[in-house]
Amino acid sequence: MKHFIIFGPPGAGKGTQAKLMVEKYNLRHISTGDLLRAEIKAGTKLGKIAKALIDDGNLVPDEIVLRMVSNEIVQNPDVSGFVFDGFPRTTTQASSFDYHLKSLGMDVNGVISIIISDDTVRDRIHHRALIEDRKDDMNDEIIQNRIVTYHSKTEPLIDYYKKQGKYHEIDGEGTIEEIFDKISLLIEML
Ligand code: ADP
Predict the structure, then answer these.
(1) Residue 117: partners with Cβ closer than 8 Å, 6 or more residues away
(2) The dihedral of CA 148, 154, 160, 166: what is its sign?
(3) Among residues 162, 172, 46, which one has the least CA distance to residue 94?
(4) What digits encode the pLDDT tens for the residues 120-136?
(5) CA-closest candidate to residue 19, choices 161, 168, 183
(6) pLDDT digit string (tens) for 12-39?
(7) If you take atom 19 of ligand 1, which residue's CA is the nearest one?
(8) Which candidate, 28, 32, 64, 97, has a CA 20 to 30 Å from the CA of 38?
(9) Pocket-forming residues, ligand 1, beta carbon under 6 Å
(10) How far is CA 180 from the centre of its chain?
Protein backbone atom coordinates (compact mmCIF):
# COMPACT_ATOMS: atom_id res chain seq x y z
CA MET A 1 0.00 0.00 0.00
CA LYS A 2 1.18 3.50 -0.81
CA HIS A 3 -0.13 6.55 1.00
CA PHE A 4 0.33 10.16 -0.02
CA ILE A 5 -0.47 13.54 1.47
CA ILE A 6 -1.39 16.25 -0.99
CA PHE A 7 -0.35 19.49 0.63
CA GLY A 8 -0.67 23.21 -0.13
CA PRO A 9 -2.58 26.41 0.60
CA PRO A 10 -6.35 26.75 0.07
CA GLY A 11 -7.13 26.84 -3.64
CA ALA A 12 -3.85 25.16 -4.65
CA GLY A 13 -5.77 22.49 -6.53
CA LYS A 14 -5.31 19.69 -3.99
CA GLY A 15 -8.80 18.28 -4.52
CA THR A 16 -8.52 18.38 -8.33
CA GLN A 17 -5.13 16.64 -8.32
CA ALA A 18 -6.22 14.14 -5.66
CA LYS A 19 -9.14 13.04 -7.89
CA LEU A 20 -6.73 12.45 -10.80
CA MET A 21 -4.42 10.46 -8.49
CA VAL A 22 -7.37 8.32 -7.42
CA GLU A 23 -8.28 7.51 -11.05
CA LYS A 24 -4.75 6.72 -12.21
CA TYR A 25 -3.37 4.91 -9.16
CA ASN A 26 -6.51 3.39 -7.69
CA LEU A 27 -6.14 5.23 -4.39
CA ARG A 28 -8.89 6.23 -1.97
CA HIS A 29 -9.38 9.99 -1.52
CA ILE A 30 -9.77 11.25 2.06
CA SER A 31 -10.54 14.98 2.06
CA THR A 32 -11.24 16.38 5.52
CA GLY A 33 -12.89 19.44 3.92
CA ASP A 34 -15.30 17.19 1.96
CA LEU A 35 -15.98 15.03 5.04
CA LEU A 36 -16.75 18.11 7.13
CA ARG A 37 -19.02 19.57 4.44
CA ALA A 38 -20.89 16.23 4.30
CA GLU A 39 -21.43 16.41 8.10
CA ILE A 40 -22.75 19.96 7.74
CA LYS A 41 -25.11 18.92 4.93
CA ALA A 42 -26.38 15.98 7.00
CA GLY A 43 -27.02 18.36 9.92
CA THR A 44 -25.10 16.24 12.45
CA LYS A 45 -23.90 17.52 15.83
CA LEU A 46 -20.33 17.51 14.51
CA GLY A 47 -21.49 19.41 11.41
CA LYS A 48 -23.04 22.11 13.57
CA ILE A 49 -19.78 22.61 15.48
CA ALA A 50 -17.78 22.64 12.24
CA LYS A 51 -20.02 25.02 10.31
CA ALA A 52 -19.38 28.18 12.31
CA LEU A 53 -15.62 27.56 12.31
CA ILE A 54 -15.38 26.78 8.58
CA ASP A 55 -17.62 29.68 7.53
CA ASP A 56 -15.24 32.08 9.34
CA GLY A 57 -12.15 30.50 7.81
CA ASN A 58 -10.94 28.91 11.06
CA LEU A 59 -9.73 25.37 11.59
CA VAL A 60 -11.90 22.68 13.16
CA PRO A 61 -10.45 21.11 16.38
CA ASP A 62 -7.71 18.53 15.82
CA GLU A 63 -9.56 15.72 17.69
CA ILE A 64 -12.56 16.01 15.36
CA VAL A 65 -10.59 15.68 12.13
CA LEU A 66 -8.33 12.96 13.55
CA ARG A 67 -11.36 10.88 14.49
CA MET A 68 -12.95 11.39 11.06
CA VAL A 69 -9.78 10.35 9.24
CA SER A 70 -9.23 7.30 11.41
CA ASN A 71 -12.85 6.18 10.77
CA GLU A 72 -12.31 6.49 7.02
CA ILE A 73 -9.14 4.40 7.22
CA VAL A 74 -10.70 1.54 9.17
CA GLN A 75 -13.78 1.53 6.94
CA ASN A 76 -11.64 0.98 3.83
CA PRO A 77 -9.30 -1.93 4.58
CA ASP A 78 -9.11 -3.18 0.97
CA VAL A 79 -7.79 -0.13 -0.86
CA SER A 80 -4.38 0.03 -2.55
CA GLY A 81 -3.57 3.27 -0.73
CA PHE A 82 -4.91 6.62 0.44
CA VAL A 83 -4.47 10.19 -0.68
CA PHE A 84 -4.97 12.54 2.26
CA ASP A 85 -6.17 15.98 1.15
CA GLY A 86 -6.39 18.95 3.52
CA PHE A 87 -5.02 16.79 6.32
CA PRO A 88 -2.89 17.01 8.39
CA ARG A 89 -3.15 20.76 8.78
CA THR A 90 -1.41 21.35 12.14
CA THR A 91 1.70 19.81 13.71
CA THR A 92 -0.52 18.22 16.38
CA GLN A 93 -2.55 16.52 13.65
CA ALA A 94 0.65 15.36 11.92
CA SER A 95 2.26 13.83 15.01
CA SER A 96 -0.98 12.17 16.18
CA PHE A 97 -1.50 10.89 12.63
CA ASP A 98 2.02 9.39 12.51
CA TYR A 99 1.38 7.65 15.83
CA HIS A 100 -1.97 6.33 14.61
CA LEU A 101 -0.60 5.08 11.28
CA LYS A 102 2.23 3.31 13.04
CA SER A 103 -0.26 1.48 15.26
CA LEU A 104 -1.98 0.27 12.06
CA GLY A 105 1.35 -0.77 10.50
CA MET A 106 1.04 2.01 7.93
CA ASP A 107 3.27 4.88 6.88
CA VAL A 108 3.09 7.91 4.59
CA ASN A 109 5.22 7.39 1.46
CA GLY A 110 5.44 11.03 0.48
CA VAL A 111 4.06 14.53 0.92
CA ILE A 112 3.36 16.26 -2.39
CA SER A 113 3.28 20.00 -1.85
CA ILE A 114 1.68 22.24 -4.48
CA ILE A 115 3.31 25.68 -4.39
CA ILE A 116 1.34 28.79 -5.44
CA SER A 117 1.60 32.44 -4.37
CA ASP A 118 -0.92 34.15 -2.06
CA ASP A 119 -2.12 36.18 -5.08
CA THR A 120 -2.85 32.98 -6.99
CA VAL A 121 -4.68 31.64 -3.91
CA ARG A 122 -6.97 34.70 -3.98
CA ASP A 123 -7.55 34.44 -7.77
CA ARG A 124 -8.31 30.70 -7.61
CA ILE A 125 -10.73 31.08 -4.70
CA HIS A 126 -12.53 34.00 -6.38
CA HIS A 127 -12.92 31.82 -9.46
CA ARG A 128 -14.14 28.83 -7.41
CA ALA A 129 -16.71 31.09 -5.69
CA LEU A 130 -18.42 31.49 -9.09
CA ILE A 131 -18.75 27.71 -9.48
CA GLU A 132 -19.18 26.20 -6.00
CA ASP A 133 -21.42 27.39 -3.23
CA ARG A 134 -18.94 27.67 -0.33
CA LYS A 135 -19.48 30.48 2.18
CA ASP A 136 -15.77 30.48 3.07
CA ASP A 137 -14.94 31.35 -0.57
CA MET A 138 -17.30 34.34 -0.81
CA ASN A 139 -15.67 36.94 1.42
CA ASP A 140 -12.18 38.52 1.12
CA GLU A 141 -11.70 38.86 4.87
CA ILE A 142 -12.42 35.15 5.38
CA ILE A 143 -10.15 34.18 2.48
CA GLN A 144 -7.38 36.30 4.06
CA ASN A 145 -7.96 34.55 7.41
CA ARG A 146 -7.52 31.16 5.69
CA ILE A 147 -4.27 32.35 4.07
CA VAL A 148 -2.92 33.61 7.42
CA THR A 149 -4.00 30.36 9.12
CA TYR A 150 -2.21 28.38 6.42
CA HIS A 151 1.04 30.29 6.95
CA SER A 152 0.92 30.16 10.75
CA LYS A 153 -0.51 26.70 11.48
CA THR A 154 -0.05 24.53 8.38
CA GLU A 155 3.22 25.71 6.82
CA PRO A 156 5.26 24.47 9.83
CA LEU A 157 4.44 20.97 8.54
CA ILE A 158 6.91 21.56 5.70
CA ASP A 159 9.81 21.30 8.15
CA TYR A 160 8.12 18.43 9.97
CA TYR A 161 8.03 16.31 6.80
CA LYS A 162 11.39 17.57 5.49
CA LYS A 163 12.96 16.13 8.64
CA GLN A 164 11.40 12.77 7.74
CA GLY A 165 12.74 13.04 4.17
CA LYS A 166 9.19 12.84 2.80
CA TYR A 167 8.61 16.37 1.51
CA HIS A 168 8.42 17.05 -2.27
CA GLU A 169 7.47 20.32 -3.97
CA ILE A 170 5.63 20.84 -7.27
CA ASP A 171 5.13 24.20 -8.99
CA GLY A 172 1.36 24.71 -8.89
CA GLU A 173 1.08 27.67 -11.27
CA GLY A 174 0.71 25.58 -14.50
CA THR A 175 -2.28 23.83 -16.08
CA ILE A 176 -4.06 20.94 -14.33
CA GLU A 177 -2.43 18.49 -16.79
CA GLU A 178 1.09 19.94 -16.37
CA ILE A 179 0.83 19.70 -12.61
CA PHE A 180 -0.57 16.18 -12.75
CA ASP A 181 2.30 15.04 -15.03
CA LYS A 182 4.77 16.23 -12.39
CA ILE A 183 2.80 14.52 -9.62
CA SER A 184 2.70 11.26 -11.60
CA LEU A 185 6.48 11.28 -12.05
CA LEU A 186 6.88 11.80 -8.34
CA ILE A 187 4.42 9.07 -7.34
CA GLU A 188 6.17 6.57 -9.56
CA MET A 189 9.48 7.39 -7.86
CA LEU A 190 8.18 7.13 -4.30
P1 ADP B 1 -9.32 24.65 1.29
O2 ADP B 1 -8.08 23.83 1.21
O3 ADP B 1 -9.70 25.28 -0.02
O4 ADP B 1 -9.32 25.63 2.42
P5 ADP B 1 -10.80 22.42 2.44
O6 ADP B 1 -12.00 21.84 1.79
O7 ADP B 1 -9.59 21.56 2.53
O8 ADP B 1 -10.54 23.70 1.55
O9 ADP B 1 -11.14 22.93 3.91
C10 ADP B 1 -12.23 23.80 4.17
C11 ADP B 1 -12.26 24.13 5.66
O12 ADP B 1 -12.52 22.93 6.42
C13 ADP B 1 -10.98 24.71 6.26
O14 ADP B 1 -10.86 26.10 6.08
C15 ADP B 1 -11.16 24.30 7.75
O16 ADP B 1 -12.07 25.16 8.39
C17 ADP B 1 -11.82 22.95 7.66
N18 ADP B 1 -10.80 21.86 7.66
C19 ADP B 1 -10.52 21.02 6.61
N20 ADP B 1 -9.55 20.16 6.94
C21 ADP B 1 -9.17 20.46 8.21
C22 ADP B 1 -8.20 19.95 9.10
N23 ADP B 1 -7.38 18.95 8.75
N24 ADP B 1 -8.10 20.51 10.34
C25 ADP B 1 -8.90 21.49 10.72
N26 ADP B 1 -9.83 22.04 9.92
C27 ADP B 1 -9.99 21.54 8.68
Answers:
(1) 173
(2) negative
(3) 162
(4) 999 999 999 999 999 99
(5) 183
(6) 999 999 999 999 999 999 999 999 999 9
(7) 33
(8) 97
(9) 10-11, 32-33, 36, 53-54, 57-60, 65, 86-87, 89, 93, 136, 146
(10) 16
